[in-house]
């Protein structure tokens, strides 16, 4: 008997419905904020996907040569594909440009709770604005999405890659070593990160500054940023980065949106292309990020486009589903407002099909009992599958242009005129 490939999953109806619910709400939020949907290929050039991702992700990409001898890979994240599109087909579009995408991604990670080799994300990218209000929008959008999904107790971890970059650039550390430091910080390996800095012959001031920064975190965002600014005095780029993050968070605060945040000066994310604010969302009960993103102002240029500032976020659909299940938050399913139409006799089946068609046209999800079972067995099957209403079509009732309407949950039933059947069902669903 065949099994799924390791790290891949079959999503059965309940799980598929939960995933599609998160995706649907993600798409609704994209429209509310003016993000237009694009669809990019699952398969891309390896060189494109490897250009500015981390070494760890490069090693975990699904790569192969196609029949034309080209080295290709399955996308491990969306941003490189979107950046390629912006640098080519969308290069002359007016700015700002807001783009949304959703779909599956692939990484050869070790399968574990919340980490799969095939996973789903919804992705929001805002191109054209270098200003802090663009970053603030991405934070507010993420907050809005999690709130609409009825997730509770979620928080944001926020930092700014320019703080670390400003220090290490001034110390003359090359890009490759800086990337290694960021990779280690992403794994919370602070001592190893400091060891790379020592080996790079940075100053004692730099080492002392980094040690203090790695310990600087807290929930009072502006107090933490004051500490950061004091710590990085003399590193102009780092000071400017802390001030930029202050502006972003102040804009969010002034908007009236309340974010639960932890500002962490030593925070880093795995992807190499970030240039500004970075963040992740999470709930305390899960030790994995639900989503994350930040600013990347140089990526489009890398792919041959004009310099275009950009900021974005990827929401982990699978992980948000896990968080909702952990908190026992269940979206309303289609079954909770569905109808089964049961014909008592074969001669009533034509009418049953006619009624089912009319109910669907009114927006109801309708199944017809097609197994030839008795009414009792058909009702038991509908009850087992969580159908909300049953319409029983019998010859006797049809003579009076009526049907039996049964509310499955409380087993109450009534005989209703066919002309008012739709209204009776909708009244009960309110």
How would you characterize this protein structure?
With 430 residues, the chain is of the alpha+beta class. It folds into two domains: 314 residues, Bira Bifunctional Protein, Domain 2 (BirA Bifunctional Protein, domain 2), CATH 3.30.930.10; 96 residues, Anticodon-binding domain (Rossmann fold), CATH 3.40.50. 42% of the residues lie in helices and 21% in strands. The strands form three sheets. A nine-stranded mixed sheet has the order 1-5-6-12-11-10-7-9-8. Strands 14-13-15-16-17 form a five-stranded mixed sheet, with helices on both faces. A hairpin with a 5-residue loop joins strand 3 and strand 4. Helix 8 packs antiparallel against helix 9 and helix 10 packs antiparallel against helix 11. The longest helix has 20 residues. The radius of gyration is 27 Å and the shape is elongated. The model has no long low-confidence stretch (mean pLDDT 92).
